């Protein structure tokens, strides 16, 4: 590898955000990417990565594979050294389990212990310039009021083991990574891309929207004044690529909706209009709500707002800005219906661009 080549070590490449960020990294011909992929061997890892690239482009340019390498590597059970670690200049750690129903120790293995593995890899990369860890704005947990980019432990509780173990991962980083060029990015709820709604992951708000569209939800135990903070995948991926390559390490950045944030009542009314259904009624009781749905309804009872001053300082000058929550959700609903909520997916570059004012 040339000394002028930027070599990125990427975890989570086969996930939605990892896929979008990989696409952005590969647009620069000076960038080579080593993807750590959970697989039995490198051949299986390469196949999974090829499948991921196929989700981005219906007819991918064969030349990109010359700058792309898959390495079989399970972060929860690291088996060996990473070939080429001596060439790595940047690390983006985006791998995580976003399941909310994991037992605490299982979630810690997926989200906290893996952060330590990545720190160990970073210390074995002599050319390392920047380590970017992808966390979540919901390390704020049950905190009420403003949560800043400098905040972490403010005495909050947590809605689920995902939030708790991402919080614990950040605690670990603050303790253990003082010698490393570390940046932390905290996205809020991530949905499909702004112009098309395209996504490969239908979680958090998507199951609620799908259930409501089918008439399975008529009442919601939610606070109509609670905060709904949603960002599109393209905004987060653009921000991650820029933070990794073009900013100085050392800060925490909230990748959130900012002034475009809204409340639960507005989201309820938007969904009712999109699906041509009566608006769901707000109730207090959770009796009769299925467990899987109940675990998601916590995100309709959030009372934290996320300050993003540091993110705006570095992203505004290059035009990386979030769309409003309502615009993001409109696109998400249109693509959700068109793709049958993920059962009829299309390649990213084949997804139709939504016209202004498109509705479901």
From TrEMBL:
Pfam families: NAD_binding_4. Transmembrane segments: none annotated. One of its GO terms (molecular function) is alcohol-forming very long-chain fatty acyl-CoA reductase activity. Residues 10-239 form the Thioester reductase (TE) domain. Gene3D superfamilies: NAD(P)-binding Rossmann-like Domain (3.40.50.720). This is Unannotated protein.
